[in-house]
Each structure stands twice: as C-alpha cells, then as structure tokens.
Amino acid sequence: xxxxxxxxxxxxxxxxxxxxxxxxxxxxxxxxxxxxxxxxxxxxxxxxxxxxxxxxxxxxxxxxxxxxxxxxxxxxxxxxxxxxxxxxxxxxxxxxxxxxxxxxxxxxxxxxxxxxxxxxxxxxxxxxxxxxxxxxxxxxxxxxxxxxxxxxxxxxxxxxxxxxxxxxxxxxxxxxxxxxxxxxxxxxxxxxxxxxxxxxxxxxxxxxxxxxxxxxxxxxxxxxxxxxxxxxxxxxxxxxxxxxxxxxxxxxxxxxxxxxxxxxxxxxxxxxxxxxxxxxxxxxxxxxxxxxxxxxxxxxxxxxxxxxxxxxxxxxxxxxxxxxxxxxxxxxxxxxxxxxxxxxxxxxxxxxxxxxxxxxxxxxxxxxxxxxxxxxxxxxxxxxxxxxxxxxxxxxxxxxxxxxxxxxxxxxxxxxxxxxxxxxxxxxxxxxxxxxxxxxxxxxxxxxxxxxxxxxxxxxxxxxxxxxxxxxxxxxxxxxxxxxxxxxxxxxxx
Length: 494
Hints:
Blueprint: E1 2-6, E2 9-12, H1 13-17, H2 26-43, E3 66-71, E4 94-95, E5 105-107, E6 114-116, H3 120-123, E7 129-135, H4 145-154, H5 167-175, E8 185-188, H6 197-201, E9 216-218, H7 236-251, H8 254-258, H9 261-278, H10 293-299, H11 303-316, E10 321-325, H12 340-365, E11 371-376, E12 380-382, E13 402-403, E14 413-415, E15 419-424, E16 432-434, E17 436-437, E18 445-447, H13 452-462, E19 470-473, E20 476-479
Parallel strand pairs: 3-10, 3-11, 7-16, 8-9, 8-10
Antiparallel strand pairs: 1-2, 4-13, 5-6, 7-15, 11-15, 12-14, 17-18, 19-20
Helix pairs in contact: 11-12
C-alpha cells in the first residue's frame, strides 16, 4: 500500500509490514525519507482552517459526487479521434498538407456528429454525454508534455513558488471522502519508472494541502488487491506491531522532529487511512477477480481497460476522484512522433470498448447521474503545424512535406489550438456538442474556445465547490484556479 510522505515521494507501507522485510532502525528509515520530508517542509504548509469557502459548499448545489478522469496521455490528435476531417488515404509521394485525417469518419448516436473509425463503441454512447471540440491549450513556449500535463492537472503553469495541488487533491481536501475507508483520490495506470518520472511526480501530488490528500497509486489494476492487503501469513498482532514501528520511526524522522503541527497531523491521518483500508473488507473493491468473466473480458484490453473496470468498482464503493491513464511514456501511446496512423489504430482498440462499457454500466446502475466522467489529453496533434498557426514555436519532428515513407503518415506535431474532450454524467447535458474547429488546415478552434481554468471550474461547479475556494499559503490566497478567475461553462450543464 502506498501513502504519500511528501510531494512527489511515496513510501510503501506494506514493505514495512512484510514479515520478510529486513529489520528497520532509525538510520535505515532516515536514509529513505530524509530528503523527501525536508523538501516537503521547505515547501511550507497552509494555514490551518483557512479554506475560506467551506460555509458556501453545499450538497444542494452539487450535481456530482465523484469524478473519473480518463487521461489520454501523450497528446491525442483530435482529427484522428473525436473531430475527424476529410479522409485522405496514404499513397507514396502525397503532400503532407493534403492530409487532414488518416481514418474515415463514422456516425455516432448524435445526429451530425461523427467520430474517427475505430471509436464506434464510444460513439454509440454519445447520446449520454457531451463532446467539446474547442479546448485550447496554453502557450508556454517550447511545447513539453510534462509542462502541459502539469498545467492541465493543476490549472497552474509551472514553475510555481509552491507545489500546486492536483485537481484530485483539491477535491479530496475540500469535500473529503464519501466512504471514509476508500482513499478519496486514486491514480491508476501511471508508472514512475519510465520516461520523465520526476516531471510526472511534480503534479501527481497534493502539494501544500497535506499528505493525506495525495493520490493513492495503483500502477497496474490487475495487482490492485496486492496494494491494499497485508502480506500473506501475517497475523493481526504482528501486523499491529509493524504499524506501531512505522509510527515510531516517523516520529523520529525530520518531519516528526522539525515539521509543523499541520504536517505531522497530515502524515498521521495519512497513516491512519492506510491502516484502516488494510484492515477493511472494502479492500475487496480492488479485487478484479470478483468480476464475472464476461464483464472482465469486455474491459480487458490492457492496463487502461482494466483500470476503467477498477474505476467503476471504486466509484461503487465511494471513491471521490479517480484518474485512469493510458500512461505517458515518451514516444509511446498517443505520443505519435512517427507511425502515427498505425499507433493510433492500436490506441483506439485500447480505449474504445472499455470507455463505452464504463459509461453503459454506470448509466444502467443509475450512478452516472452523480458521477462526472471527463476524457481529455494535454493537447492535440497535426501533421504540419507545431503549436498554433499564429505562434511560432520550435519544431520537434523531422516531418517531410512530401511523404515517401508510411511512417510519416499520421499526426506527429504538437497542436494546441483545437483539442477534443468528452464529458458524461454529473449534471452534464446528454447528446450535446460544444465548440467547433475549422474543417480545413489549420484545424483550429473557431467557435466557443474553452481553456483550462474554465474546465477546472466547471468540474468544481458540478461538485458544488465555489470559485472562491482557497488556502492562505506564503501569506497570499491560493485558489483552485489562478486568482479564482475560472468561469463555469454553464452551457455544458443541464
């Protein structure tokens, strides 16, 4: 089981409880946690009790209780997925500028709305949700996945003088858990042993909000149960002794000796949450083997598909915020710097069935009405344009104007001026399309642009969290959106 010891750092609690684990002493423990805890202490902590909008947060105004974020990591091309344009098949010697989409379009459950071939299952449930075709990503100079992912998940552009909390942490802190045993913020599918690990850790954190509001990490949903149960063969007395040992070691750590009361209390609560889950029958929610085979098979396209299944089970048990990612690893997944067409065909097989099944099952059970599902990516892609048409940024792909090799067929450049998002449930309109991009290159947003602060504030609005929600940090208010200026896109809601 993973609990957060500091922003960007986690400790494997089960390792401490494992009966075969080497004996721990203070020196060993400090070697593992000193750097992380001291870094957290340096970052500061919010003044206790200064969540200014608590009095105005009410269940009556909320249209959703939970959020599932389906994260298409790596930059999902809108013209190859949910906003297809004219289809141009590959032929050797074709001009790249002629290619708008490399797949034919297919009809969806919404009249006049087509999706790219390979996404028919998601298309069949679009009568249950809204498509946004006008998300505009920020201009941050040289386009980097980690910077734009940080911006999307926190609503703040890096760098910041304090560690900005992830959206899931804001929600966990402000609303608390639905079920006190289930972690309020669960992150499924992202490993930190691949690619830009440290950059990813920077926004997978509660920041200054405190350890207990950070994400509970599950790298592989197949092993979800292993994350939340004591080691086999450990009796209750030995389990309790290991828990007490862990507490004693934390008290002797730099955080225990020099940390603020807020930090120590936050870590204590984090430990209590971990211990409660380990001892709870609610841990069975993490056991995918309990699903009927016919249901399991519908989700089983890989880690992402099974992550969608785990997300459904966790929502049923009272999870507040769940992120399921296709996983960001440079030059893999949606990060299509070459072989874009064939790569995209594979990614569609990974996401199409599980996402549609998740929506169908939540709808059938009646939970979709109170569960907000958001599908998004950090930016889009184009075959010719890097960034946006009117802002020159550094090229990152050696893309020829004339295609003599099929590996260049597809969307390889980072495009920020027109991105697609999907929303379902939680008060969102059913069967609705918002925004528009041009049908000719550059396929940029031409109607109802929406930016990240509006996305965040709309999600918070669905949960009943007002825009003035903030903490005092470094003697200034830190809002859920910069300066608390994010506006709700009311057209998205019923």
